[in-house]
Design goal:
The complex is a heterodimer of chains A (716) and B (254). Chain A is of the alpha+beta class. Chain A contains 24 helices and 10 strands. Chain A folds into 3 domains: 224 residues, no CATH class; 253 residues, no CATH class; 232 residues, no CATH class. Chain A has a 7-stranded mixed barrel with strand order 2-3-6-7-5-8-4. The radius of gyration of chain A is 34 Å and the shape is elongated. The N terminus of chain A is likely disordered. Chain B has a 6-stranded mixed sheet, with helices on both faces. The longest helix of chain B has 17 residues. The chains are: A alpha+beta (716), B alpha/beta (254). Chains A and B meet through α14, α22 and α23 of A and α2 and α3 of B.
Chain lengths: 716, 254
């Protein structure tokens, strides 16, 4: 491109401030060189405003790089080779979409900031006789230069970092791979296409703005809007109320199933309230402080309070955006890293033992049958064949069925169809007191009509429990609700709450209904015999042992079926955690990885927004502080006042984000429960670390940008 | 003793890359008595603004002395200088220099608030001044809502409210239309009659013709001065015009 070929000419170009004579000189060249002249003007414009353009180009490049990396990973051959790499691929594609939409919105925001700065220059060109057509040419060149620069830089960084990202991903997903630096052409093309769309939209927007304004407007556009902020009490009030409701919703929620739904409502409400409070609430607060004359007319407060009102009026929206971005980053980081770190717990929750057998059948009592005895033997035998012994044997019987809860009654659905309403549907388990005492290591006793009870996910507030169906009902008095006594894979898989009823004799407790299903062959209520063991060896060996076991058990089941005259009395299922682990790592690891990537994108955005805020504030404050100095404010007072204002503006979003996070915490916890995550302590620690790391990063950014701010303000 | 004594003040600027030295003030000597009203005139580049900056303690002279109430401005410590300026000097600028984030009232209070005064005290002080300047009705308005003349009157109120020893005015009528200029000069006259010392730097013959004494600066020196004596504004105007003509055509000293 021409502007790169001839640096000598570029160097000689006048700056925009002295643009008057320069433009005239340049204009003579128009007839001769045409496009090249516009290109030069565009390049000068960018160079002279590099304080604004450099971070903008860097951000564009950052977004491009991020997009390329994610899009590269979706095409990565490693994922293709991976067992069930599909989950990760679709998670990453989702990430691509998010980055694209976010880049679009965010680049529009920053671009409008830049355009506002450049308008004065364009107004000058316009007055000097440059038509709108020519201005458009300059804009086109400018966009071209910026987009090409940021695409090249972005793709370059993206390609360099993509291998790093891939290594991180491989590590997170625990897969093995060789190290080859490769470039995905498809990802390059895809990235280029997507960002070209964004850049073209940005250009169209700028052209629209230039075509729709007259030179005087262009010249004065920077000084627009210095009216004192109007207080919108209604908005401020609505903001407080909405925020209070959202917080209340988040904190008061009991049911994790609802958490998912409420979460979205609460998120939208919080976003709305944040904007209202930052825009209207902050101004209202400043006004209230101003009305308090004893507070207001103090040397420390006087200047700060009055200019804060203006500052918030101008910056409320972007500060709110920063706040929301911060909250998003924090929630995302904390939840995905918790899921990832707590994954082994969740796995154990879902698969209580390394190898699990689940035999169902209503005809007889399975655990005492010939079949069960033989199966136990086969399992031990298979382990021995590979030189391992089984340990931590889990061996119990349970009857499960669905219940439709209404107050203290559970309606079974053996006869009538009942509507499936999330929230009122329960997974019911009935287990014998003997099994319970054995598993939990307790010596509980129950008298007639009494039961022990364990409820997961929700709170059950009643003292009795009644089962009812087909005109029959049974009621137990709940002697006490017990702590969790054993893991059950079924419970952690479902979003419904579960209830365990522990009674002395399961057969007697459910007698009428068990007889009914035995006769009808219905699967709506089933007796299960669960048998699980741990083997202490690595995943690969576990799988081999498991395969041996399941072959033998399969053979056994077939024999039993033959003996029974062709129909199997038992349903039979088995699973091995080793075989499932990869899938878990893929899902949770994928989410974690995406959390980190998007976190980076959002942080990048927040940083740039803050930087621009500081710079533009700096220019506006410069004149103000000059006056204050003349009127008799000491340098020290000025510095103090600047400090307090900048600090407030800067850390307000972070503070609000942390408060949001604190209130979102119970909600996030309940949602994580749905993913089988129950380790509250870990969640608190991880959240703390996330906030700490983020705050440190934030402070670092503050120090860098406030330097830029001071250098502008203190040039007086 | 005079209120302000300027003796042999000299100011040399060195350009950034060394070498070139520009002598803005060569040797300025004059004094201001309490209650006087003085205008300093001169062409652009004659050193007027440099002189004013030195009087305001915003800049330090290369040589010579400035004494305000017998106190050497150059000897005031850097940390105390802002306070000194606030307590002893009042400023009126061409561009008003009102802060647009404050209402007129708050703009006027600014120096007092910085000095740590209470609201009731400030209000009591403001009332007579606002009445004198005719801005009582405007106090709650913001700078963008009022005219240039009104802004300048608020700026004068801000300068007066600290009861300064000396008011320094830099082209106070420069940004005003002729009606507002007349009003402001009348106000300056009234304030001066009440005993306030005023020192004004100006281009405007009209503004200068209201002063009790006019100093002319040329090439960094006091070139000439005119006392009003018993002259009317018109006669004063004529005298100043004549002097300026001599000054610009480079004639012999009058």
């Amino acid at each position: 491109m021409s502007e790169h070929k001839n640096p000598a000419i570029i160097g000689d170009l006048p700056s925009s401030q002295k643009g008057k004579s320069g433009s005239k000189k340049e204009r003579q060249g128009t007839n001769v060189t045409g496009g090249r002249f516009y290109a030069k003007l565009a390049w000068t414009g960018i160079r002279n405003n590099r304080r604004f353009y450099l971070p903008y180009i860097l951000t564009c490049a950052g977004m491009v790089a991020m997009y390329y990396i994610i899009s590269y990973l979706t095409t990565s051959p490693i994922l293709g080779q991976m067992k069930g790499g599909g989950v990760m691929t679709s998670i990453l594609m989702l990430g691509c979409g998010v980055v694209f939409v976010f880049s679009l919105i965010f680049l529009f925001y920053t671009n409008s900031f830049l355009t506002k700065r450049r308008k004065k220059e364009f107004g000058l060109y316009n007055i000097l006789g440059m038509g709108k057509r020519s201005l458009s040419w300059i804009l086109c060149w400018e966009s071209l230069i910026i987009s090409v620069l940021s695409m090249i830089m972005g793709l370059f960084t993206g390609i360099l970092l993509s291998k790093l990202a891939e290594l991180v991903m491989i590590n997170i997903l625990r897969i093995e791979s060789d190290f080859i630096l490769s470039i995905s052409l498809q990802a390059v093309v895809d990235t280029t296409k997507q960002f070209m769309i964004i850049f073209i939209l940005l250009l169209l927007n700028m052209l629209y703005q230039v075509w729709n304004s007259n030179p005087m407007e262009l010249l004065h556009s920077e000084q627009e809007g210095e009216k004192p902020p109007k207080v919108n009490w209604l908005f401020a009030l609505v903001g407080i109320v909405v925020l209070a409701i959202a917080y209340y919703l988040a904190v008061s929620l009991e049911d994790p199933v609802q958490a998912l739904l409420i979460f979205f409502v609460a998120v939208i409400m919080v976003i709305m309230a944040t904007y209202l409070l930052f825009i209207a609430g902050s101004v209202a607060l400043c006004r209230l402080l101003q009305k308090n004359k004893r507070y207001y007319y103090k040397a420390n407060h006087f200047v700060s309070v009055s200019s804060m009102g203006y500052r918030m009026k101008r910056n409320g929206a972007s500060l709110a955006s920063i706040c929301i971005l911060c909250t998003m980053v924090l929630v995302m980081l904390m939840s995905t890293s918790c899921l990832y770190i707590g994954m082994e717990d969740s796995l154990r929750e879902r698969y209580p033992r390394n190898i699990m057998f689940d035999i169902s059948g209503n005809d007889t009592d399975v655990s005492d049958s010939e079949y069960a005895r033989e199966l136990r033997g086969l399992v031990e035998e298979s382990a021995k064949e590979h030189g391992e012994t089984v340990e931590n044997v889990l061996d119990y019987s349970v009857v499960d069925f669905a219940g439709y809860g209404a107050e203290d009654k559970m309606y079974l659905s053996l006869n009538e169809e009942r509507g499936f309403e999330i929230g009122s549907t329960w997974q019911m388990f009935v287990i014998s007191l003997d099994d319970y005492n054995r598993l939990a290591g307790t010596k509980e006793t129950l008298s007639d009509g009494e039961a022990l009870c364990y409820v997961s996910k929700v709170v059950y507030p009643h003292d009795t429990i009644t089962l009812e169906d087909g005109g029959q009902a049974k009621t137990w008095k709940i002697k006490k609700q017990v702590e969790k006594f054993m893991e059950n894979g079924v419970d952690s898989m479902q979003v419904m709450p579960s209830m365990y009823i522990i009674v002395p004799d399961v057969g007697e407790a459910l007698a009428p209904w068990l007889d009914e299903v035995k006769e009808s062959g219905s699967m709506l209520m089933q007796k299960h015999w669960c048998y699980g063991v741990d083997v202490d060896c690595d995943d690969e060996k576990q799988e081999i042992i498991f395969n041996g076991m399941s072959e033998k058990v399969q053979a056994l089941t077939e024999r039993m079926t033959e003996e029974n005259g062709g129909t199997s009395p038992y349903g039979y299922g088995c699973e091995c955690v080793a075989a499932e682990r990869a899938g878990f790592y893929e899902l949770y690891g994928g989410l974690f990885f995406l959390g980190i990537m998007l976190g980076l994108v959002f942080i990048l955005a927040a940083v740039l927004m803050m930087y621009y805020k500081q710079i533009s504030e700096g220019y506006e404050d410069q004149a103000r502080f000059e006056i204050m100095q003349k009127v008799g404010m000491t340098k020290k007072q000025i510095r103090k006042s600047i400090n307090s204002q900048v600090l407030t503006v800067f850390f307000l979003p972070l503070l609000a984000a942390v408060v949001h996070l604190a209130f979102a915490f119970p909600l996030v916890y309940k949602m994580l429960i749905l993913f089988g995550f129950v380790n509250l302590k870990l969640l608190i620690i991880v959240t703390g670390i996330c906030v700490l790391v983020f705050a440190m990063f934030y402070t670092l950014v503050y120090q860098i940008t406030s330097k830029a701010y001071y250098s502008i303000v203190s040039s007086l | 003793m005079s209120l302000l004594e300027v003796s042999h003040v000299k100011k040399i600027y060195t350009t950034r890359f060394g070498g070139n030295k520009v002598e803005a003030l060569k040797n300025v000597t004059f004094s201001v008595e309490e209650g006087e009203s003085i205008a300093i005139m001169g062409e652009s580049g004659s050193g007027k603004t440099t002189l004013l900056n030195i009087l305001a303690a915003l800049d330090k002279p290369t040589g010579g002395k400035v004494l305000l109430d017998g106190q050497d401005l150059a000897k005031i410590k850097e940390s105390a200088i802002a306070n000194f300026r606030r307590d002893h000097l009042g400023f009126v600028f061409q561009e008003f220099n009102l802060l647009d984030t404050f209402s007129l009232e708050d703009n006027i209070y600014l120096p007092l608030v910085l000095a740590g005064n209470g609201y009731a005290q400030m209000k009591a002080r403001l009332e007579p001044i606002a009445a004198q300047l005719g801005i009582t009705e405007l106090l709650k308005k913001y700078p963008y809502e009022v005219s240039g003349g009104q802004k300048q009157r608020a700026a004068v109120a801000r300068a007066l409210i600290t009861n300064p020893r000396l008011i320094l005015a830099d082209e106070p009528t420069g940004a005003l239309d002729s009606r507002a200029t007349d009003e402001l000069l009348k106000l300056f006259g009234a304030i001066n009659m009440a005993g306030q010392t005023i020192l004004m730097v100006t281009h405007s013959v009209k503004a200068a013709s209201h002063a009790g004494r006019v100093l002319f600066i040329k090439d960094g020196e006091v070139y000439h001065q005119i006392y009003r004596g018993d002259s009317s504004y018109e006669q004063m105007y004529q005298k100043i015009s004549d002097t300026l003509t001599v000054l610009t055509t480079g004639g012999e000293r009058a």
